[in-house]
Amino acid sequence: VGAIDINSVIKKFTTDDGNEITALDGVDLNIKAGEFISLIGPSGCGKSTLLRLIAGLSTPTKGTLSMDGAGIEGTSYERGLVFQNAMLFPWLNIYDNIAFGLKARNVYRKHKERVSKFINMVSLAGFEKSYPHQLSGGMIQRAGLARVLINDPKVLLLDEPLGALDAFTRMNLQDELIHLWKKEKMTMILVTHDVDEAVYLSSRIVVMTPRPAKVEKILDVNLSYP
Ligand code: ADP
Ligand code: ADP
To answer: What is the complex's ipTM, to 2 decimals?
Structure first.
């Protein structure tokens, strides 16, 4: 499970000064469960817009999006979204940030071990009581990842999650993403402007045209990872 079907999706925005912008102009894309897809294309072409639609944060002007055959209506823990700056709650410590989704769903008491497991998984043991501003960029992204993974998503949506990190931290986190993908077998959809990153990480690369975006071509990478 975790297949995403995007059919003839059009997304238009009206700007504050009343102009209409077509961000997506008929996007068709079928993503199989367990694929690692990278979305690449020039800045402003509509990659984030497409990701937000898949997340259920926004609705298409025309066309349909579905997950495992069911229409995408609103957000769901089944589709976890990680942003470039993780968007941790600054007033919560790392433990509470990561536990947030479980608490919100009232499954917290049964899942203390689960919180510890995910804190360990992203190598943040010992930092439970730290606040986001006390951590490095890489640690914040790891916490952001754990906060989403703890909800057991079937699809992980990544909006340039490594874009703001230094090269060394980025390389480490790239390898962690590959490891996670192989281990958890979840569908991953990564928006990136880094072609090398797309080639290194994904099983297929979807190239989008400059705005208004369509799918320009799909490249099979099929690398056998070390
Ligand atoms: P990318 O992620 O590829 O850089 P985006 O999806 O962020 O591109 O944006 C695609 C286009 O749609 C851009 O021209 C952007 O300004 C516009 N856009 C995106 N979201 C909105 C919005 N909420 N209101 C108005 N315009 C938007
Ligand atoms: P809709 O509700 O019509 O589907 P969205 O909810 O996707 O549209 O867009 C609203 C969000 O996008 C807001 O958070 C807004 O701050 C942000 N936004 C507004 N203008 C732009 C823009 N030009 N580029 C990217 N994001 C934008």
So the answer is: 0.70
